[in-house]
Amino acid sequence: MKLRSAGFTLIEVLVVVAIAAILTALVVLRLGDWRSPDDPRLQLERLASLIERQCEQAMFQARPRGIRVTEAGYDFWQASSQGWVALAPEGLDRPRAWVIGEGPELLVEGHGVDLAGEPDGPQLTCQPLGELTLFEIVLRDQAGRYRLVGNSGGQLAVTSSAALP
User: What is the residue range of 88's domain?
Assistant: First the structure.
């Protein structure tokens, strides 16, 4: 009669480790980013991700996509045979509001854009071949100045600089 040794097999240990890793990943994804939602850098990083998505959709659908920036927030548009049409108000393409004290600054191709009124269409466009309007969006808080810069090749960069005392 053969006695079984006490302990776990390698497979059992690997299964437990895999389950723990999956649960840890789910918790981290659920909690998300620990930065404050009104952190300007976080807001610009989210906007950059959404702009990248709009540019990908422009390429996949072979239709220009646009981003309209206002003092209150930003929303997404698509070109159609009737002109620019705002995208659905739900889902990933839903309009977003800025969560900052003062409104953003927008420069398009080196020129300042007045965001006081609400434009009839987007100021920034993603073309189906990957071109993006040259732009810069600046947000400020007590800690400093945060910039999202987009170039004509569709590349986006978020940078920051400390506030002067």
Answer: 40-162
Number of domains in the chain: 1
Runs of H (alpha helix) within 4-142: 10-31, 40-61
Bridge partner list, 148: 137, 158
Residue 113 counted as domain residue: yes
Domain for residue 68, yes or no?
Answer: yes
Q: Give residues with Cβ within 8 angstroms of 63, minimum separation 6.
A: 78, 79, 80, 128
Q: What is the pTM of this model?
A: 0.74
- Within 8 A by CB and 6+ apart from 122, the residues are 66, 67, 68, 76, 77, 84
CATH number of the domain encompassing residue 75: 3.55.40.10
What backbone torsions phi and psi does residue 46 show, to the nearest 5 degrees? Answer: -65, -45
pLDDT band at 84 (very low <50, low <70, confident <90, very high): very high
Q: How far apart are CA 145 and CA 142, in angstroms?
A: 8
User: Quick one: 115 exposed, middle or buried, by C-beta within 10 A (0-12, 13-18, 19+)?
Assistant: middle
Determine, yes or no, domain membership for 14: no
What confidence tier does 31 reach under pLDDT thresholds 50, 70, 90?
Answer: low
